Amino acid sequence: MKIKAKILDKKGIQKAIIRISHEILERDKEKQKPVIVGIRNRGEHLARRITASLEKITGGKTLFGILDITLYRDDLTEVAEQPVLKETRIDFDITGKKVILVDDVLYTGRTIRCAMDQLIDFGRPAVIQLAVLIDRGHRELPIKADYVGKNVPTALNEIVEVKLEEADGVDEVVICEKPG
Amino acid sequence: MNTLIKQGHVIDPANGRDGIFDILIEGDKISNVAENINKKTEKVLNAENKIVAPGLIDMHVHLREPGREDIETVASGTRAALSGGITSLACMPNTYPAIDSAREIERLKAIIEKDAAARVFITAAITKGRAGKEITDIKALKKEGAVAVSDDGEETQDASIMLEALKKAKENDILLISHCENKKVSKDGVMNEGVIATILGLRGIPKKAEYEFVERDIKLAGKAKAKIHIAHVSAKKSVEIIRKAKKEGISVTAEATPHHFSLEENACRTYDTRAKINPPLRSSDDIDAVKEGLKDGTIDVIASDHAPHGKHEKEIEFDMAAFGIIGLETSLALAIANLIDKKIISWKKLIELMSVNPAGILGLKNKGRFSAGADADITIIDPEKEWVYAKDSIRSKSKNSPFINRRFKGKAISVIVGGKVFEGL
Amino acid sequence: MALMKSLYARNRDNMTVKKPVIWTKKDLLGLEYLTKEEIELILDSAASFKEVLARPLRKVPTLRGKTIVNLFYEPSTRTRTSFELAAKRLSADVITIQRESSSIQKGETLIDTGRNLAALKIDIIVVRHNSSGAAVMLSRALDISIVNAGDGWHEHPTQALLDILTLKEKRGRVRGLNVSIIGDIAHSRVARSNIWGLTKLGANVTVCAPKKLIPAGIEKLGVNVTTNVDEAIQKADAINILRMQFERDEKKAFPSRMAYFKTYGITEERLKKAKKNIIVMHPGPINRGVELSAEVADGANSVILEQVTNGIAVRMAVLYLVSTAKKEK
């Protein structure tokens, strides 16, 4: 794919993570002690980083979980590639908790809707919030992010690619042109 | 009507002929065979580059009439035979009712008279209703015109009854054809016993179900001093037993079907019921043994065991499907593909296996040869003709063949039955 | 997107890792027809479904709106129930049709029944039939998905899959394990499916049965064969004990249940000569005092009940995968 522009580099991503962590703590007026749940795949890695960051700042433990939304997708059969099913791991009770979902890119909002459906099957959280590294606009559902790393206006024929060391060997966010 | 067949490659083993000859037919008989015949005739067939053979004879065919006209009739079956280059066939008595009395033979003869396109000879039943218990009036059957007796499909399990039948057959100078299957061994088997049956989870039919009874029946024939003909030989050991018996001078002849030298048990691999046959398709050793038997004279005849079955009998679970496949229209082609093209036998041998020998075994004196005064039953073959065995062009009423859509090279293009010419097959 | 040209890619350490295999089959007819990678895909997916079964809300909406018909020509409570539960946990609609099977063909043919069901616009038929090849036949005749829940003596793929999953959980791997299958091998679809699955995954398989119940040519499938049960158990890491069906045993390999138990029954006494942590499996339902003693069935080595739990996860994985099968481009 043809890279059009680089939005964030390693340092930029690091800064975004730290800023989001601080924002989470600042807005936690009721001291609800948020739990962080990452949406596979890259949301998981970002969520881990945010959790580590929060623990560093607070000096305490933050609960962490992973969601695989494959079984909750509504466009299952229209997906170009067969989604690889991986495990969901929520080892704690989410009822009454403040859950912060984490994903890499917020686009149409459909992934987040699936994630919320799935989360609610696990229990009744008190509050669900959303943290994303990139918000690229073009929402198709009434969903908004509470914490955003960077707002990036995009065209529909563009793709935002988030690369993380844990999965791709490098930290960067780029905009590409859709092939074909 | 007179017909002249010009310049064909005439293969007439009974008369030692193998070369380019003209054949003159007058009325329903062969009148002359010579290198150049200049007589004016109503019809002239140019047989250049074609093989001209005495009409092919298939001595093991199931016509299904009376009783199962839904899957085949004398009319459709004989049309299918002509399409395969077969001018005479012998039909088996496992109809409904069975051909086990003079009256049934008479009735069938009337149908044949009316509807048959090829010549049909009748093999009658050994036991009443083919139940294996009471022997039929073999004398009367012979008198009414049966050429052989057989309980094909339901081998006479009781040795004493088989012995008695052989004695009666000898008394009346009629051939007994044996379908060798020890039902106590084959039981509910549905394909050859072996690793393929094991993989498929299907009950196997051990080879000894066949060769044990080949041995038994040959012994009994020896005892009764009667002729015996072993139907559809499939197993290597059966071939060996027959070879040995012949060496010992016992009057035994044998036949093999084209599918038993063309297909292995692996054809059943996808639960294809078009490969479900009795005796079953076997392994490569057995196929090689059958081919060797055809080559060295242990097996005298190629016969199709043409067994039509309806869709509702075949397109069901493998273990419940009927046994058998049609074969009249592919017999010659399979023999060409697997025996001639593979250089196992010559054309001369093939004509012996498919015309001369069956005529001899059934006692059809005026067939299988181009002697003056012999019946004008002739098969003209184009050995180079390429064709596809398409489902739509199958003449038989039933379409149960594993060879559908197969490409073949070599086909009968015309046949003459009693002087009547059928072209454009 | 073209099917993976290579099964391997490079990860960030530039080491080759296996690319995930894509499931392309609309049916599950038997383990004979699956590659090693496809079998592993089912097992890995099953692990995720086990997690679903551990949740307070044991349901996911994945197959919502899909209809699954259990078409059972043989009586079976456990497999049928397991498939029903699996379908329901995936939010599919399930209908069970219990048909009478007979040795003579009467009434509607299997294919006609299948066609009628397809005309009802259902998505998956889970079929159990007493004729080998029944599932294969149906899959040829119909465009909808067919899952084989046991056809005659041929295959029972989901049973073997749950057996292998249980083994994998207990030992961490299948490759190199010595597994002995003991019982009526000749008539067992469970044995055949296990042989395919285990050999493809690299286990060493031994089959053990009285001589009359060892099918022709079985050694050609890459298994060791013995009629001596002590020999079969001696080096085994796991044994899979098949149900002995005396009603069906027309080969009369054994005169009575007691005689079988004496020569082939797995007892604690017998297991003393085996490896200490040998895994004891049985597809169920068990005949206490025939194939195995009550003590062994309930003992520490037995994983029989875990097999049952794994059964639902495996069946959920299978139903999920055949529903989302991608045709190869």
Question: Would you kindly provide a written description of the structure presented here, covering whatever features stand out?
Answer:
The complex is a heterotrimer of chains A (180), B (425) and C (329). With 180 residues, chain A is of the alpha/beta class. Chain A has 4 helices and 8 strands, in the order E-H-E-H-E-E-H-E-E-E-H-E. Chain A has a 5-stranded parallel β-sheet with strand order 3-2-4-5-6. Chain B has 2 domains: 2-51 and 375-385 and 406-422, Urease, subunit C, domain 1 (Roll), CATH 2.30.40; 55-362, TIM Barrel, CATH 3.20.20. Chain B has 12 helices and 18 strands. Chain B has helices spanning 74-83, 102-115, 138-143, 159-171, 183-186, 195-200, 208-224, 236-247, 284-296, 311-314, 331-340, 347-362, and strands at residues 2-12, 17-26, 29-34, 43-46, 51-54, 56-61, 86-91, 119-124, 148-150, 175-178, 191-192, 204-205, 228-230, 252-256, 301-302, 378-388, 407-417, 420-422. The two termini of chain B are 21 Å apart. In chain C, 48% of the residues are buried. Mean pLDDT of chain C is 90; it is low at 1-8. Chains in contact: A-C, B-C. Chain B binds chain C through residues 193-202, 204, 270-271, 312, 315-320, and chain C through 32, 103-105, 109-111, 129, 131-134, 136-137, 151-155, 186, 189, 192, 215-218, 220-221.
Report mean pLDDT of chain B, rounded to a whole number: 96
Q: What is the number of E strands of chain C?
A: 11
Shape of chain C: globular
CATH architectural arrangement of the largest domain in chain B: Alpha-Beta Barrel
Uncertain segments of chain C: 1-8
Q: What is the number of independent domains of chain C?
A: 2
Question: Approximately how much helix is present in the residues of chain C?
Answer: 25-40%
- Alpha-carbon distance between the termini of chain C? 7 Å
* Name given to the CATH architecture of the largest domain in chain C: 3-Layer(aba) Sandwich
Q: State the end-to-end CA separation of chain B.
A: 21 Å
Order of helices and strands of chain B: EEEEEEHEHEHEHEHEHEHEHEHEHHHEEE
Q: Proportion of β residues of chain B?
A: 15-25%
Strand order of the largest sheet of chain C: 9-8-7-10-11
- CATH evolutionary superfamily of the largest domain in chain C: Aspartate/ornithine carbamoyltransferase
